[in-house]
Amino acid sequence: MLRLTFIAMSALLLLGSSFAGFAQGPAVPAFIKPAHAEVLRKWMRRHPEYRVATESDCRCDEDLARIRTKSEGAWKAVPNYQPYYVEGDFNWDRAKDFAVGIVKGERPSQFRLAVFHGPFGPEHSGRAAFLSDPMPLGQAFFFGDPRPHPQMLVVGPFESEGGALRPTKTGYVWDYGEDK
After folding, report:
1. Mean pLDDT value of segment 86-110
2. How far, CA to CA in Å, does 51 sit from each of 27, 28, 104, 121, 163?
């Protein structure tokens, strides 16, 4: 009887811990703000083939070390910089948005940019406002000062111009700064 009780309790503990993990949802890295993490989990439940890109996917250790520790002129060091996560007002509506890189599999070669519009909270649908076509890893997200206003989310290799995500009335377009 004691053995049966032990087995039953073990099964309940295992089931309870599995359910707790399920209730929390897909894994989101700790550097993602809690309100953003909830939105991402909603999105990832509908898109389980993806995971959040991390700095190890970037394979850009020297660039990360430089951007996190060195200040050059107007460009200040950003100690907590993440190459595939950034917060800002991307669509110029005065509400904070966030962008995250997403990848498929454990050793991806490409990522996609997903933009989520704020405000964030339990009522957020978890739907991405923008999802890019796949891009090669090794690029990163850049936003904020000292870039000119109105600021746009820039995606590209370190120390390059990259492409800016320009908001429109119906979404976003890539702006590569080319004269028309």
Report:
1. 95
2. 8, 8, 6, 21, 23
**pLDDT tens-digit readout, 73-88:** 888 899 999 999 999 9
Q: CA-to-CA distance for 133 and 101, rounded, in angstroms? A: 11
What is the mean pLDDT of the segment spanning 120-144? Answer: 93
Q: Are 106 and 52 in contact (CB under 8 A)?
A: no
Strand order across the 172-175 sheet: 139-142, 153-157, 163-167, 172-175
Beta-bridged to residue 147, according to DSSP, are: none
* Residue 119 pLDDT: 92
The mean pLDDT of 84-98, rounded to a whole number, is 96
Is 98 within 8 Å of 36 (Cβ atoms)? yes
How, if at all, do strands 110-116 and 97-104 pair? antiparallel
First to last CA, the chain: 82
